[in-house]
Amino acid sequence: MKAITLLRVDSSRAASRSANRHVAIGDLDELAAGLARVFQVSCHVEAEPVDAEFSYDVARDQYNSTAILQRLAGRGSEAERHLLGISGLDLFVPILTFVFGEAQFAGHCAVVSVHRLREEFFGLTPRAGIQRERLLKVAVHELGHTLGLRHCADWHCVMATTHNVEGLDLKGMEFCVRCLSRSGLAAAMRGRV
């Protein structure tokens, strides 16, 4: 991976219903800076959002992350440039109630959502920094899948599987030594220093 492009994923349907379903450009800039630190690659935010209206499921009142992922993949990308869709929409895959994100395994595209990462989703008062930290962990995790990493048994590792924000808050931000080695990032990072 030599570069990451962040794309905002929105929906006209969501725009008319709730401002909370959008991700601010400032939040994307902060995420890009965090991903640049973790992966030591160039990250930039594309200004034009992707409209996810096509992926809306009326019965679930959610957006199909697999369909969004396929749309992102259709945009094409250089082999070493990864695309990361960032959304405020509630995402799902048919076999699960919701997902924080989804990625092409050993591919170049991933999508993540802040919808269930927000304290407000649980009726709580927002805490400074918690949403940013959660989003960065989910983004690093999904980009790890694009590098061919599977879920890790080490619950401190960012590749540990998590199905709730409590588990997400407990796990670390970094790859464990084993995942770092398997991803090829360790060697790539040594070459950039």
Task: Tell me what you see in this structure.
With 193 residues, the chain is of the alpha/beta class. The chain has one domain (3-192): Collagenase (Catalytic Domain). The protein has seven helices and eight strands. Strands 2-1-5-8-7 form a five-stranded mixed sheet, sandwiched between helices. A three-stranded mixed sheet has the order 3-4-6. A hairpin with a 5-residue loop joins strand 7 (101-103) and strand 8. Helix 2 packs across helix 4 (130-146). The longest helix is centred in the C-terminal third of the chain and has 17 residues, at 130-146. It is globular and about 45 Å long. The two termini are 15 Å apart. The relative contact order is 0.15.
Question: How would you concisely characterize the structure shown here?
Answer:
The protein is an alpha/beta fold.
User: Which class of secondary structure composition applies to the elements?
Assistant: alpha/beta
Rg is 16 Å
Order of helices and strands: EHHEEEHEEEEHHHH
The biggest sheet amounts to: 5 strands, mixed
Fourth-level CATH superfamily = Collagenase (Catalytic Domain)
| Count of discrete alpha- or pi-helical segments spanning 4 or more residues | 7
The strand line-up of the biggest sheet is 2-1-5-8-7
Return the average pLDDT rounded to an integer: 89
Tertiary shape = globular
Number of domains: 1
Level of helix content? 25-40%
CATH-scheme architecture:
3-Layer(aba) Sandwich
Terminus-to-terminus distance: 15 Å
Beta strand %: 15-25%
CATH class equals Alpha Beta
Stretches with pLDDT under 50, minimum 5 residues:
none
Q: How many strands?
A: 8
* CATH-derived topology: Collagenase (Catalytic Domain)
